[in-house]
Design a protein that fits this description.
Chains A, B: Its EC number is 2.3.3.21. Chains A, B: It catalyses: pyruvate + acetyl-CoA + H2O = (3R)-citramalate + CoA + H(+). The structure is a homodimer. Chain A is elongated, with a radius of gyration of 28 Å. In chain A, helix 1 packs across helix 2 and helix 17 runs parallel beside helix 19. Helices cover 38% and strands 21% of the residues of chain A. Chain A is an alpha/beta fold.
């Protein structure tokens, strides 16, 4: 059976830039556009040329893509012709094959926000679309606040769509701009638009996540007949974000009733790179990936409940709705207090350690993990530290070096002008290949600002590892989490450190002590040792 | 018009604990249960008594709640009677008014995961429910994998429900355990169950967010007739999490077609505390609040796009689907500072500071709070530090003493037997009443164990405050949380310290610095100063 084509429109570079705290550089935009093209979306909305320098520069530097590069802008303002509107001209001058023009369809917005008459607005829509079509562009009309507009005055809202459609727009995009329309209503209104005469195969859907329903609203519109879905990678976007394409793409590709009915143009191979795409975007934006993200989150296939973990070992489909590898993700069975030896073997295998069922180290590893969890360690996320504990018992952990001692000093005083200044200093003494290595580091960064004692310690520790130095030069500390927890009856500090390296690996280690500096030191040490093991240092 | 009752069932303390990296202590469970009760949910599922020590301890320490406290467990195992199943006995022995028993309804799981016959499973369900009902409990039956089971064998899945219903279960909860069923199908299957004879007012819905549709699936089930909604605060839960009650509660209370049709029992006042509840839970778990969270996220009402921001100033309804204050959240308009003065006055009043509407300090306090939040401070829980910022601007904060300098040393070395030992030492120099006070403390506790640098610093700081010493003798540090966050473009450390005193007061203070010791020192100082203010020191 031939599947019907369903088009994907990505607005990460435009609506995604409205995320609080997100500001793309031109180079980042180019990199993301390439990634989107490799993923296989149909349209890439690159920005609003003329609205800000980055967007204008992007269109000048825009990469060649198979996807249709699209410039965003708004319909001409009232009181001037489409030809004489310099904002519209800026959009068309970007020279993209497609342009997406946003216009009002909600009477209240026409009169309140624009302050023009309802007829003037319809004229602006019709003339702007016709003008862009006359220049040979594929035109999309973004019907802003369409669902609210329909509820306020369905006739007027529909007339706006019809004006764009009659003027030659290829797509009419129904936007739930404020994100307040629930999926049921989105489906019903989309069906009504089709019933009134605008065919579903020119309709697009653009939702926001203000009620946590952006994905469901998009699916409801597709079920009602819309054939273009707009969204952003990782659900970036203003307020609560746009419909998350990272969630929608696998849902449309893998789940019924969509999978057998629609072809989104995303290949299986591209789909299996989805988790990577999601993580790379977070890396570009220096955001911590959301563990609980559907399909691509680090926890999306993590089975913590004891009952689930044991059933998963019998048959993964018992507690997984899709095969994690289809989206490039992986199953995780965290060590919890109920976990048994078979979980342990599975987890060791994931770390590349094949251990026979009757290996006598298995019960001792399990015991040590349990004892350590009782002391406050947590191995849910700190897989690298878990692996080191196991390797130690399996006799697969060389002693690369010895820590003889360290000392950290934190000082705060007033400078000659009476301003408080602080400074940390760390001394670490290691024994590497029988040689005593003394290293000292301060906590000052390139700008002369104090970055604190853990920073000083981390630098002193990584300063001179002798023969091993070359393995750790591309390492960096990317996250650092501290919490007070119970170790036996005493409160202890648990530090979890995330590290990354030049090969794109990211790993977590844990340290526990009543002394936060000690706990940090332990996690830092584990991070370095894991890296040496993985890189095959000897 | 009378609205129909829709029941809310919270499982934060049970399913929420399956979140990777989340491990509640008993005290935290008690605190969260109280918070849920204040919020006004109908049921609080406290855990699985007998499954682990924390859950058992919680039921022994469970607070008195208006909400029905519920113990979770599973139906009896095959081959023994309900009376002789010690797992079931453990659940009933917790003595809660309600019990929720999970059982299989999917033929594949009965034969593959349990390895028993289909009839044996139905007998287990019927007898377990009947046994709990006979003990006078309100019984909920959690129909695990119900939607997948229905798709595989609707007759068998229905027979499982019917067995529980006939045995006297008050609620039959339809669970989409693997989270793979889309909202459309959830609605259809729920309607089919009702059409087959189990009334909607005994049906509950329990969804997971593996396709990003947990909220939409819950809404679809309610529209189809289900009358109990299960979920967790902040969408905690295994894998991608459970249906997010923090999203569902305002949607059901404020959005149509739900708001005018259903009464969830949540008062307007409780609803206006929802953002606070969400943040406090994150604080307890030391998680970074999700900015883009619907309704309660810090970005949920942030208007970054220039067009949106200017329209918002004309009329907020142009780009907001609800009024942010209804859920205790606030509008954020970058470049505009007019939001929040009335919020600020309300918060000052809570701290006992009545400030007139036209007090010129109000805008400067607001500015400083916003500037500090930009630097990484967070005042959601650190009410005591917030109060000190305000008092400083209001001229209501005496300078009790001056900090001249401090120095902390952390050392780790090997003792004479080659064992690693660590020790911290802190020196603090204060100026009190014109007198220079030098204090030094070590980090060793009464047992001679190192408690770390913050402990040493805290003791040195509180060692000799001269005339103020008597005010702080009953103070102690009860919790200490550290998080890496962004301050401007740099990563900084945020420390939140909870202190308590002999009068039973508990207060939180915050410090921010790239240097964790500095950040801790700032929070410790605030804690002492707040105590001096509150106790009327002069």
């Amino acid at each position: 059976m031939t599947r019907e084509r369903l088009y994907l429109y990505d607005t990460t570079l435009r609506d995604g830039q409205q995320t609080q705290g997100v500001q793309f550089s031109t180079a980042e935009k180019v990199r993301i556009a390439r990634m989107l093209d490799d993923l296989g979306v149909d349209y890439i909305e690159g920005g609003w040329p003329g609205a800000n320098p980055t967007d204008s520069a992007f269109f000048e530097a825009a990469p060649q893509t198979r996807a249709r590069m699209t410039a965003f802008g708004m319909t001409k303002r009232a009181g001037r012709s489409a030809e004489n509107d310099e904002v519209l001209a800026g959009v068309l001058n970007a020279g993209t094959p497609a342009v997406c023009l946003v216009g009002k369809t909600h009477d209240f917005h026409v009169t309140t926000a624009l302050g023009i008459t309802l007829d003037e607005n319809i004229t602006s829509i019709a003339q702007s679309v016709a003008h862009a079509v006359a220049q040979g562009r594929e035109v999309l009309f973004d019907a802003e606040h369409f669902f609210d507009g329909w509820k306020a005055d369905a006739d007027y809202a529909f007339d706006c769509l019809k004006a764009a459609h009659d003027a030659g727009a290829r797509w009419i995009v129904l936007c739930d701009t404020n994100g307040g329309t629930l999926p049921g209503e989105i489906g019903e209104i989309t069906a009504s638009v089709i019933a009134r005469g605008i065919p579903g195969d020119v309709l697009g859907i653009h939702t926001h996540d203000d009620t946590g329903n952006a994905v469901a609203g998009s699916l409801a519109a597709v079920q009602a007949g819309a054939r273009q879905v707009q969204g952003t990678l990782n659900g970036l976007g203003e307020r609560c974000g746009n419909a998350n394409l990272t969630t929608l793409i696998p849902t449309l590709a893998l789940k019924e009733p969509f999978a057998s009915r629609f072809d989104t143009g995303i290949t299986d191979k591209a789909l299996s790179g989805l988790t990577h795409v999601s993580r790379v975007l977070d890396d570009i934006l220096n955001r911590v990936p959301l563990k609980s993200a559907p399909y691509v989150g680090a926890s999306a296939f993590a089975h913590k409940a004891g009952l689930h973990a044991s059933a998963i070992l019998k048959d993964p489909t018992t507690y997984e709705h899709i095969v994690p590898e289809t989206v490039g993700n992986a199953r995780i069975i965290p060590m919890s207090n109920q976990a048994g030896q078979s979980n342990l073997r599975r987890r060791l295998a994931e770390a590349g350690l094949e251990v026979a069922r009757d290996n006598p180290a298995l019960p001792t590893i399990l015991d040590e993990i349990k004892t350590r969890e009782g002391q406050g360690y947590s191995y849910d996320t700190a897989q690298a530290s878990f692996e080191l504990v196991a390797r130690r018992h399996l006799g697969q952990l060389p002693e690369f070096f010895k820590v003889k001692r360290y000392r950290v000093t934190v000082e705060r005083r007033r400078d000659e002008k009476g301003r408080p200044i602080s400074l940390s200093e760390a001394v670490v003494v290691l024994l590497v290949d029988g040689e005593r290595k003394l290293s000292v580091s301060e906590s000052l960064d390139a700008q002369g600002n104090d970055r604190g004692p853990v920073n000083a310690l981390s630098r002193a520790l990584a300063k001179d590892l002798g023969t091993y130095q070359r393995y750790i030069d591309d390492m960096r500390l990317v996250d650092f989490k501290v919490r007070i927890t119970n170790g036996g009856t005493e409160a202890v500090t648990r530090v979890i450190i995330d590290s990354a390296d030049g090969q794109g690996r990211r790993w977590s280690t844990v340290g526990v002590s009543p002394n936060i500096v000690d706990a940090s030191f332990e996690a830092l040490l584990d991070a370095i040792i894991w890296k040496l093991v993985r890189d095959g240092a000897e």
